[in-house]
Structures
1.
Amino acid sequence: MTPLSPLTAAWTRSKPPLLRFLDNCLNEFSAETSGSVADYIPELSKADPAYFGISLATLDGHVYEVGDSRVPFTIQSMSKPFVFALALDLLGAGRVESAIGVEPSGDPFNSIRLNSENHPFNPMVNAGAIACTGLIYDSKGADAFEQIRLALSRFAGRDLAVDEAVYGSESQTGDRNRAIGYLLKTNAVISDNVAGVLDVYFRQCAVLVTARDIAVMAATLANRGVNPVTGEQVLTPYAISRTLSVMTSSGMYDYAGEWIYRIGIPAKSGVGGGILAALPARLGLGSYSPKLDKHGNSVRGIKVCEALSSHYDLHMLNRSDDARNAVIADYDIGKSPSRRVRRPQEREILAAHEQEVRVIELVGTLSLSAVDYVSRRLAGRPRPQFVIFDLHRVTSTTRAGARLVAEAFEELAALNVTVVLSGVRRASKEWDTLREWTAELKNVRDFYLLDTAIEWAEDQIVYRYGGSIDFHETTELAEQPLLEGLGEDELADLASICTIRTYQSGAKILTTGDRADSLFFLRSGAVHVTLPDGVRLATLTAGMAFGEMALLESTRSADVFADMAATAYETPLQAFERFRQQHPHASERIMRNLAQLLADRLIVANAKVDILTST
């Protein structure tokens, strides 16, 4: 086996920057030994204080792990935000919000105190969490805990179990929580069965997780309720956004104000030694280290969060997104037409009215500020007849952005401007978000491929300005651009070696990799040329040639399909070579025409590159 070069070996050992950062945190903060393991629940005191694991999950589903990231521990109070979100979805916001407040208490997590309305201050303290569990218990009865366990499992992306020893220990020593339970019963916040509610609550806190699990759970919160690893929409964006709000103000108990001021990431801690932090639209972090500070938060976990926030400047109120970056390209069809090869009459009409079709390619998040900027940019130039918004680089659409899109489209409809959307699949969540607000609009069309959208808009311009596109028209060899300049005798000799072929709609005419032994002159109908991955290179109508690269290449480099019933002159390459030998002038003319056609294609491709790099 050949030994690897030093550079190759170093490359294979290299780590992504975020993983190196987590490694550094693990190494640096392992030396931190302050704090103490929770012992008010006896079973928790058995945790090894040396354990230290960190995990970070990105919103594209990648999970980084260092240290003891797979060591199981009980979720404890980190269950609270997830159960609150579950209650919002199961029971409705009105029911939950009528029983539980959302204000910070400033008290320790286990304070036996209610607000001025005799309700829990918020769902992150024990009183609010027990009330939240009680609401689910009232609705689901004996199935309440299983509902909670399944929801936690969906957040984690795997089936979670209960640590029975910790559950038993919590149940035996949970008198303070019982006092809270009876206080809630006295004030009609929960039902009569306090013991049943507390049993579910104790089990909920004893669910086993790892640092990796809580990183994925946090990332699901950061991803508007979509688990980035499994792709499942666990709970609604409404429930998630309200949960993150309460985590921001109250997730770290009587340290919450300091936390959000210095670190600025919604978070939740648990006395088992875990901390989860969810930075919306960015990432989820999970850490495990059993030693706690006086507030009941993991000492090392706090340091990891502080380091992550300060090192990468991740405070959620220090965002620098610029709406102007939402537009990656803005042009009319004169600068970048469709890949459809047009006849002279069509080209003349489109050249005279190229500004009637405006194309705006967008990127990133379609937010309120991004849509506002695009609408003002659109209004800064003369009114077109068609505006194509390409969304294939758009990663998400906010509800505010979608609503402003609808309002902008309504204004365009009033001005007789047709909107065309491209790059978004009808089965996608982005489509659902957009259609929620635009379904009733009559001026909106959609095509998945941008080129198809541009081609359709071009066709409308041709029709509106007196042109025609007759796919059933039959053309002769004399009308072929590749054969321009050939005399009548030369064309007659060429026709004698051609065979007319007929193709049904959808038929595959040429296949990538096959031997290139003939070329074709389209006589009627239309065909399209695609790469093997489905990317459309061109749409050809009667009067155009295809397979002409056989003059330069020995194998086919693209597929050709019939868009509709079509006929073509097929010319065997061997016979064509004999024709060229017999007619050297015609041969020279054909190769010049081919060079011009290839140059025209290159000019179009370069124009597209210029558009994308100059916007």
2.
Amino acid sequence: MSCTTLLVGKSATIDGSTMIARNDDSGSGRYDPKRFIAVNPCDQPRHYRSELSHVSIDLPDDPCRYSIVPNALPGRGILAECGISERNIAMSATETIAVNERVLGADPMVELQPAHGNPGDDDYRPGIPGGIGEEDFITLVLPYVHSAREGVHRLGELLERFGTYEANGIAISDVNDVWYVETIGGHHWIAKRVPDDCYAAIPNQLGLDDFDIEDALGDARNHMCSADLTEFIRENHLDRGMGADSLNRVGRFNPRTLFGTRTTKDHIYNTPRAWYMERYLNPSEDWDSPAARYTPISDDIPWCRRPENRVTVEDVAFLMASHFEDTPYDPYGTRGTDETRHRYRPIGINRTGQMGLLQIRPYEPEVNRSVMWLQYGSGPFTTLTPFYTNVRNTPAYLRDTGAEVSTDSFYWTSRIIAALADPHYVSNSNAIEHYRENVMSHGHTHIARVDAALRGATSAGASAGAGAGAGHAVSCADIEDVEGIKHSGARVDAAVGAADDAASGESADCRTACDALEQANRQMADYLRSQTQELLSKVLYTSSNLMRNAFAMSDR
């Protein structure tokens, strides 16, 4: 997948939450419809078989519930893409990256080898399964782990045992930590914790640029890796540091230099995206003059940095939909030339299937701690909308995406709007901007109201707390609008998974809270649908008036 990832540590966000976000972009010439679903424990396979690689894996018998955004159509496996579990662990998989030929020669990819001939024939050779990949990672990891660190360990063990057939980056987070894993060849891997006060900007390129192998093989406070990574590097002559035995001498290395690529394609497709994200989050630096430290084709743009201001949901939304605004490289802009405006691959492109911003908030109880801000389709023409993830079912508008184009689907409606608006970007931009503003501001208010209701707020003007939507007054009437929440009697301080019902495995309080969150999601989806239909009408009208066969004179 040709994707873009942005990770933000808890001290770098406006509200102390952890955030991981990724554009899920389809390959060139392909558009993969998406859906938002909940996977209940009874629906989780106990014996898993990959559709793409045919690898078979027995799974533990104790999965938890989780919500994901997989492909809507069959043929390429589950491809969960992003998800959050009821334990408030988030995972985004994957950022397609690349490793160099030296790595691939030392540890080849574990690819499916199809059967040859027919059973009984002299030349028959049975098929050999491949490893695990983007199709599988979330399904195999997310419902079984209790922390981001545990998720890294489980993923690493699976990679070492089964191997992989592709190079990927995987983000795993909880309320305290954000970890990023990169696969190195067929069986090796490295992982680094994003510093709390930093963000990490990652295009389709091996990104880690500083790795403390002593920490990884020792206390593993901020780094983890394959147990034999030092031997792998040494025996295959992968260390490029100057000086004898530089790996042992310094105890740390640059993975981008040892394992990554540095090609002309990177300078068109990858490095410009990292440059633009860091240009936006650290704007006081020189990014544009001939003397700028980093340019769109720099190979040493840092993997992570400390932002100049705390990062908001709106910052992430803008960046993940961006197309080099206010630079000569904006395909919709007027600066530069036609060549510069199409020189680099934008972040927000036509092939985006969905973007999920996974936010885990420390100031809310476990039962409603996690929110997935979700959008479908091309980023410049759609909007992020917040949904709770600790649910057993999801709204039909985002869940029931089918193969047939339909305005009953948020995915297909978003695609239609983008295709209609793109040729007349400037003329439609105000309507799209107002749509995004309406939905996101309503989303903040809605989440604040529901949070307050679940906390048992009953007085007019009660504060929504220090999180998303802080500063919005919460009235009794607002809380009453969230039907069934105020008087439900749900104890949101109950531990998630504390069971008092042998059949369901969850407490009555948790079931009641899930009911409330599902209803809150339906209300948010209803508002999103009304706003999206209104935008479609406006864009259709504007673009119809700008058709090339338009003629102002009529017969009356």
3.
Amino acid sequence: MKEIAKKYINSLPKIRNFTCTLFKDLNSYKQHGTGVFVKIGTKYFLFSAAHVFDDFEKLFIPIEEGKTLVKPGGRIIKNNPKEDRKSDELDVAILVLDNQSVKDLSIDYSFLESSSIEINHSSVNFMSYIVFGYPSSWSKKSQSRNSFHSIPFIGITNCVNTNEYKKLKRNEYLNLIVEYDRQNTPNLKSKSITYGPDLFGISGCVLWYINNFDLESEPKLIGIMNEWSISNRNRLIATRIDAYTEILRKQGIIDFQETELFGFK
């Protein structure tokens, strides 16, 4: 168990390097969402949630502790919901980054290699998952230092039983649902277990899988978080990363393994 705990702790700096904050109010630095940087083949991407990217024109990414603001550029790909975003089980947003954005963002961030993406994930009934994102309530601008500071939410969790998917109007082949134990949330600032935050702002962050049976393995990106369930505040919902890779594969943007879980027309 000590070795497993050590593996979780050691994985956090790596995960943090791939994860960015997205905010849209330049005066107050309002935290609006989270994103993850990924490299597949020769292409560089920012993955997030579509409801975050619905305000893309207003979004900025802070680097150098918020002293510099990057307006990322490139080609935006996102799904159109069947009804509205609130009932959108897909909620996929991808930015195919342009060269200048890659150069600017590489000052502070790293890009996750495609070998760390796991499609066709079969959930396990074990605390093998990490949700790592930036809630608005744990983010603030320092007026005196003119910089931006955000404490990440780290949820070490497990996937729920398959019978819960129907209750939450989600499909297991497309979504992954994990628990949110708000009473027992790690807080990096206080270095203690505390009552967890309001999770507004973490949409677009990654659901990571940690293989506890292989201590040498790296964390795997298996989903992008997009919903804190209103009907059950102890549940967090992600879209499987398969949806992202399939959209890009179908459009001929990447050469990647096809998912076995579903298909897009």
